[in-house]
Amino acid sequence: MTPDQILSIRPRVLTQSQREFYFNEGYILLERVIGDEWIAKLRAATEEMVERSRKVSASDKIFDLEPGHTPDAPRLRRVSNPVEHHPVYWDYVTRSPIVDIVADLVGPDVKFHHSKLNFKWARGGEEVKWHYDISFWPHTNYSPLTVGTYIYDCGMDNGPLMVLPRSHVEVEPLLTQFDESGRWIGCLRDADAARLPVERAVALPGPAGSLTLHNCRTLHASPKNLSDTGRPLLLYTLTSADAFPYTVNPIRPKHDQAIIAGKRATWAHHDPRPCLLPPDWSGGYTSIFALQQQESESDSPPLATATM
Q1: Mind listing the pLDDT tens digit for each residue in 264-288?
Q2: Domains of the chain by range and CATH?
């Protein structure tokens, strides 16, 4: 569906002005829209995942670990596919207010793509450099969005999400996320990032129960966590039902393409704007942290292998 088609449908939760803001700016912050009961459940599930990580000594398909992770001082960077490792995460994305909120922005038929639980640990949790999401998993249109839930309060010193307003429509074509040698780095080249109008960047801190939503073409980043408290951020990528991925899903969730609201599409919607292809993810995927920190050459195939 196009933005105009979506806006012509009566909203379920958001105001019309909130929807228009999202389409114009490429993001929206909704403070305290998730109730305490859901937050308590998410905190308990997340604490359980941290406890499980104490038994892991190296990154694997579930846990991506910071260097220095130990059983006594766990430092998780990511839990991949959290919906498959604790039932609360799937219940949350299918039964909480998130479903209707996202339907107001992508249309009444909503499809699941993947989920992840990112952490920024106290006193130095890693930054995430400027990047687009869509180049990791291109779709036939640009409806995909990522919705983040702040499980705990997130202030400016916790490393909140930062977005570049209107970058989803003003930056055309999409900037590359390969370096000069053709290796995928999962972020903009330093030279391109240096030219961004970062004085326009907007930070999105918020209290527990707040949601951040950004379009798949919106440039975004987050600084290190320099505070004394950790910052977990639960993330779901959801799409309109008429958006179809045309590369391998690097996360490979069992719920990939599951309809969580409305019905399946009978037609695909194709946006004429081109989209940069990622590497061939069929051999596996670690995390954006490992890619941007260039921890493993094998995680970053050269451009020559970037096939569908």
Answers
A1: 999 999 999 999 999 988 776 655 5
A2: 3-305 (2.60.120.620)
